Structures are given as structure tokens and as C-alpha cells.
Amino acid sequence: MATFRLLLWDIDGTLLLSSGAGMRALEVALTRVFGLQGSLADIEYAGRTDRWILRQVFAKFGLPATEDNFARYTAGYLAELPAQLAGSAARVLPGVEPLLAAAAGRPGITQGLLTGNLRGGAEAKLSRFGLWRYFPFGAFADDSEDRHQLGPHALARARAHRPGRADFAPDQVWVIGDTPHDITCGQAFGARTLAVATGNYSVDQLDAHGPTAVLRDLSDAPAFWRVIEN
């Protein structure tokens, strides 16, 4: 009987570094949409959802967190993001592209996204480097502001993408990310978790949160597959 694995990837700090393009796009949109200026450098964003980040911006600048304001700010951000990505030093992290390509052709492997990005932001970032094509489904900030609620959305879409082929029980699912929030997000729905120290957290800091495994980066493909297919 075939063994199936579902890989759910984080984006920022795991697949690529956007070199601050997202925060700059938020700052530009803040001015264009609300006529306000100010740095967002003091807002914690690693591992958070975009909608959560927008709520912190509203609180900082005294803006009502209404659905209309969320919609207006989101539209402004997504309109500005491609230009900020184009003008930045954004880059794909070592080993990522060949790993995604290998996973796409590997029997029994299905891969999608589990990210705090809005879907439009995820598409903009990954399309910039030709990586969007590897992800036929995912769970995004559009689904929930709380990252811990995203796992069931990703599972439902994975099952719809592979009808009759795999149920994707928790021990078949890997959440791959670079922050403690990625680890706890996977743990929240019983998935295995692979933490990679390619963002703002060290191997030891990530290991303290109890992931299934930790890698320094994704440049060692055999080490990655030993973890995933164990």
C-alpha cells in the first residue's frame, strides 16, 4: 500500500526572504489608504497572519478595526507588494527550489501552503520566483486571523485535491516553517512539525518548542527526506 505524505509549507523565512518588502508595502498602503505615516518596525510579524498584523497597525494608529478598513488596507497592500518585491533584495533560500521540484515528482508526496500570508500576498511573493506553480492549494490569512485555525483548512483542501487517494491522517502531515508559531500551528491539529533555522530563530530556540525535527536549513536534501519519510 502506498505511503502518502502531505507537506504544508510556510513562506517567509522558510522558502524565501522578502527583504522587508511586505512591511514597506504596508507602510506605503497606510499612507495611500489612510493618509498616515509611520514605521511599522515595532510590530511583531514573524509567524503571524497578515490579518493579525493589520489589526496591530490599526491599534497603533488608532484606526477602527472594521471590515471596511481591513478590506481597504488589504487592497492597498496587495496593490503595492509587487513593486516592493521588485525593488528589494528578496531571494529564495538555499536548496528550496530543487527540493520543491523533487517533492512535486515524488510518488506519494502532496504539497501545499500553510502560511500567515493573505492568498494574494503568497501568490505575489512566490510568483516572483516561479514557485507558485508548486502549490495547488493552501491555507492563508484569508481563512483565519488565528494561525492555529489554519490547519483544518489546509487539510480539507488537500483531501479535495487528492480525492480517494489519501485521507492524510495527522502522522502523514508535516508543517514546515521557521518560527515557534509554525510549530504550535502544526501541533494544534496533530501534525508533525519540521522547523528550519533560516529565519529569526536558532536551532536551539526552535527545538525548545518541541518540533518533531529541526534542520539548520534546506540545503541538504537527503537530510530533509530522511526526516519526512521516517
Structure, briefly:
With 230 residues, the protein is an alpha/beta fold.
Say how many strands there are.
8
DSSP helical segment count: 9
Radius of gyration from the CA trace? 17 Å
Beginning-to-end CA distance, first to last residue: 16 Å
Order of secondary-structure elements: EEHHHEHEHEHEHEHEH
For the largest beta-sheet, the strand count, sense and barrel status come to:
6 strands, parallel
User: Oligomer, anyone?
Assistant: single chain
How do the strands of the widest beta sheet line up side by side? Answer: 5-4-1-6-7-8
- Approximately how much helix is present in the residues? 40-55%
The stretches of 5 or more residues where confidence is low (pLDDT under 50) are none
Mean pLDDT: 95
CA-based shape: globular
